[in-house]
Fold this sequence. Notes:
- By secondary structure, this protein is an alpha/beta fold.
- The protein is built from 14 helices and twelve strands.
- The chain has helices at residues 3-9, 50-62, 74-82, 99-108, 124-130, 153-163, 175-178, 213-226, 232-242, 245-265, 283-289, 306-315, 345-351, 367-378; strands at 67-71, 90-94, 115-119, 135-141, 166-170, 188-192, 206-210, 269-273, 296-301, 320-321, 331-333, 358-361.
- The radius of gyration is 21 Å and the shape is globular.
Amino acid sequence: xxxxxxxxxxxxxxxxxxxxxxxxxxxxxxxxxxxxxxxxxxxxxxxxxxxxxxxxxxxxxxxxxxxxxxxxxxxxxxxxxxxxxxxxxxxxxxxxxxxxxxxxxxxxxxxxxxxxxxxxxxxxxxxxxxxxxxxxxxxxxxxxxxxxxxxxxxxxxxxxxxxxxxxxxxxxxxxxxxxxxxxxxxxxxxxxxxxxxxxxxxxxxxxxxxxxxxxxxxxxxxxxxxxxxxxxxxxxxxxxxxxxxxxxxxxxxxxxxxxxxxxxxxxxxxxxxxxxxxxxxxxxxxxxxxxxxxxxxxxxxxxxxxxxxxxxxxxxxxxxxxxxxxxxxxxxxxxxxxxxxxxxxxxxxxxxxxxxxxxxxxxxxxxxxxxxxxxxxxx
Length: 379
């Protein structure tokens, strides 16, 4: 089954009681049992819900995985993954990391005895140097947020297998349409479903997909015990969003390419971060492990000042200044003061995240209007 067909049909069955082609919103907290412990597979909606189950099945199939689990947010999904570990365990992650991930790692879980090592993961030698007997997992983002660095998933999988540790990949920027980490040896795939998968800026949700039955059971136990689950209305909205994921991603990629190439040639633009450019670091790896290069782009101005970057952001008409990404509308952001403000300045600068960096989420508008918006804002 090709991806577009999977996006529309995977995990979805007509409602058995009515024949409804769309999965109903099962807005219920509990389910009738014929005798204590005897039910139809559902007993309480924190544990299972039919609408959520349909979505979890769909996401698992899209990622070529066996088990899907949905959460109330991407951070809820990350929280659940990290709760598998114990004080003294170590996790290696990229030094160019989403600010929310960095915050939960360092401000929450580090207090409970976990240790996080942040390294430039596009360099596999730097990863292996940090692996020791306490290392339990590699946490990968690729492309990274917001510098769009590309990390070789197959190389990381080989390292993880060599040292008998887990490999988790945050696949939010790529979506299952562009990249399937499980096929490349990852153990866990995580998504902020809020972004491209839902696609309409009207849902907050996270998801995990795995193949291993034992790993699924551990994560499902934590999901049920800690309770960070989404409601059926949100699950219904995501199921609807998934049906157009393939056509949306095609347009995101097409518009992204035109915008990136325009910025790359602009006399007032300094550096453009988009893995589809031939001069982008690890472009060759991106071309091997991604179907296309996505709609996320970051750039700096040649003036390289925060003040000038803010002026551009304030002038945008269609690249609306707002948190988040991956919706049908184009968004712009200033990572240093928005999505990555929780990372200390010294750490941001060490990873190359300047105060002058602008991040774009290229939407589905007519690309001529987006290019004109860039022209008038940059000057």
